[in-house]
Amino acid sequence: MEHANPLVAEPPRSIARQLDAINEYEREPVPTSKTKGFREFLALVAGEHIAGTEFVIGPLFVLHGATATDVLLGLLVGNTLATLSWTFICAPISVRTRLTLFYQLEKICGYRLVSFFNALSGLQACAFAAFMVVVSAGAVGLVLGLPTPGFSQLVPQHPSWFVLVVVLTALITLISILGIDWVTRFAKISTPWMPWIFLASALAVLPQLGVRSVDDFWTVANQTIWTGTPAPGMTRYSFWHVLIFSWLCNTSMHIGLADMMIYRYARKPYYGLASAGGMFIGHFLAWIASGILCAAALRAGISDPTPGQVATIGAGLAGTVCVVIAGWTTANPTLYRAGLAVQGLFPSAKRWKLTVALGAIAGGMACFPGLVARLDQLLAVFALIAAPVGAVVFMDVFLFKRWGLTPNFAERAGLSVNWAAAITWVVSVAVCYVIYRWTNADFFFFMAIPGWFIAAGLYVVSSRLLQKSQVLPAK
Asked: HSE on the CB side for 61, CA within 13 Å?
């Protein structure tokens, strides 16, 4: 019998085989030995939510005529509610199951039903990652003096844009395919300095707006920045708009439970509090700072400022670099999340190969910015789609056994479609859309909360009816 010589080193494995060996526990619980500490979560969550989009969202409150009081109080309350949603809903479910949302849903809803949701999730994540690429590429183009398209422009006018998009998408895809460890490492390196750029940028332009002392700030804030008067063609945002937007712009992640992808690695449920780093630095601070920068850009005669222009006004090259890195740190976990979603459609396929394909799709979208220009509308629509899904998982994981119902019913009964979940999803979305149209509401985000509660009640009722008529096989 021939024995291997221990003195001869094994030949190095190919890159493809090394990537195949990366285990992200797509269809099994994360082992305790692989869980991460609170500081790692703080960096990861803050890195995702200190994003290039902050230079887009902050100016929305300026352009929609919110007052300074509306903005400050709305962001304070809304971001607190978002933090609590991660802490008391998303993180506890994630730690209890240690599964991705997509595999947990497969157990509850059945493979065929969850496949439809996985496809929607993958498409939404690709569009969001593409938007991050557009933001970052625009900032790079500004530094290099290259012509860059506006957000509403469908076809770029210069081939350099395609080169920028391809390079940035390749870098983002590389980090995403290497898994959660590399996504976390990148966030830990890039996150600590970004908030200071946002803060420094805003402070730098305050004198241009007329702030000479601390006492001047509130007067300038009301008269020059958040004036209460919307720009032409814009509806006016109130306190409630700001509150609901800041709470529910991440609906799919917290009450919609997409961040089970991240929090399944948490050691304790209270790690949901790490989301406060993203909410109060990435949203509260950054949205206020970018609103101030937008006001300075408007005063400088820039009628439709891009994120790169907004950042550069306050912090020059450092501000532009911040936009690029902020877009990157957000796109990394977004594309990683997309890979996990689509991997649920193709269980036998390797996640990294699917992530490469999704990166190519995201890059293709980013080549034509007009495809992903209406980010706020995309987030609002997916918030309504995702909220009922989160309610179904919440009721199934936490309350079904207490109420004498069978959790993970599709898995137990061998169903490809759990009709109780299917009816719940369709009816709750339809009812909320009818409410939206009937009330003439001007803000689609408002519908996510009634959608969650309607789905929670309807899922319990429909599950009782279904489970009474279904005989489960013996364990």
From this structure: 38
